[in-house]
Amino acid sequence: MNDNNSNAFQDFCYNFMLLASKNHKAIVNTLSNVFTMRIIGNKTHGDLAEIAISEFINQFMYNYKSEHVGKDLFRAKEHEEDILVTHERTLRKIPISLKAYGDGPLQLSTDKDGELFPLLLNVGKQIVKTRQLSTIFSSQPFQKLEHLNVLPLIYREVQKQCNIVLFDYQRVVRETSKILFVDAGQRFDDEKGTVVVGKGRSHPVFIFLTHDNRYLCEVRYGGKAANALQRGFWTHTENAKDFFVSLTNGWIDYSHNLVLVKLFSLALNSTVKAHQLSCDILQEGIDSLKVM
């Protein structure tokens, strides 16, 4: 992806933020419906968030159109996007990856080619020299991270709160002062500024820190035995909260829509004709939100 597409994604996020502030009820309504899907299953909301946000863009963002990328095509693609957004005036296409995660650890890239961890390991286990850091961030694997268009949907289950955020990777590049290797059975002590013995980690990571030992992000173990949760580029929405920008103007309080759950159960047992009639009624509901 080139810089023009990166700028296009930034412009899209800015316009999304403006829309969320001007029509707050619409985004609250959509996110409430999305996270209601956790009643059906713990992972259901993630898949349905993709089609929900894609349709939200089509319905409410007048300069953009969005297409949900099917799962079969997704598995075969080079990038990690879930939706493909097009600016209707410039015709720029913006692939976006949506991540629905709880408030805490957040995977921004699966690093499916396993490039990040070996690259860092080759440089060293304590990377503090400016030249080394510059070389790492300018390398091809990290250049890919710079151009990832990731839009995380974060939720707090107990509080029934959600947030759409944007991770400021450019700021990470500017403020990373050291990258440290933390092995299995170790942890980073931010008060001492050193790696110490600690329990809880079963695989090694490289953690990225500021000059005053604030956590930024991490690259997880990328060996052949690693599963999807043990590899890739990660951050933490609580520990690195200063490096996120909210596109929904902060946390949104949402409520469960139990009628929607009933609608799904009926729809799955109904006919195409009934579905079409329902679509017409649902569009009327969406149109009523547009004039608020």
Structure at a glance:
It contains ten helices and 15 strands. With 292 residues, the chain is α+β, with helices and mostly antiparallel strands.
Report the major sheet: 7 strands, mixed
The structural domain count equals 1
The counted number of beta strands is 15
Q: What percentage of amino acids are in beta strands?
A: 25-35%
H/E element order? HHHEHEEEHEHHEEHEEEEEEEEHH
Q: Residue ranges: pLDDT <50 for 5 or more in a row?
A: none
What general outline do the C-alpha atoms trace? Answer: elongated
Give an account of the 3D structure:
- The protein has 292 residues and is α+β, with helices and mostly antiparallel strands.
- The protein has one domain (3-256).
- The protein is built from 10 helices and 15 strands.
- The strands form 3 sheets. Strands 1, 2, 3, 6, 7, 14 and 15 form a 7-stranded mixed beta sheet that branches.
- Helix 1 (3-22) packs across helix 2 (24-36) and helix 2 packs antiparallel against helix 3.
- The mean pLDDT is 91.
Question: Any descriptors?
Answer:
alpha+beta, 10 helices, 15 strands, six-stranded antiparallel sheet, seven-stranded mixed sheet, 292 residues
Task: Show the helix and strand layout.
Blueprint: H1 3-22, H2 24-36, H3 44-60, E1 64-68, H4 71-76, E2 83-87, E3 93-102, E4 105-109, H5 116-123, E5 126-127, H6 130-137, H7 140-146, E6 150-156, E7 161-167, H8 169-175, E8 178-182, E9 186-189, E10 194-197, E11 205-209, E12 215-220, E13 232-236, E14 244-246, E15 252-253, H9 258-267, H10 272-290
Helix pairs in contact: 1-2, 2-3
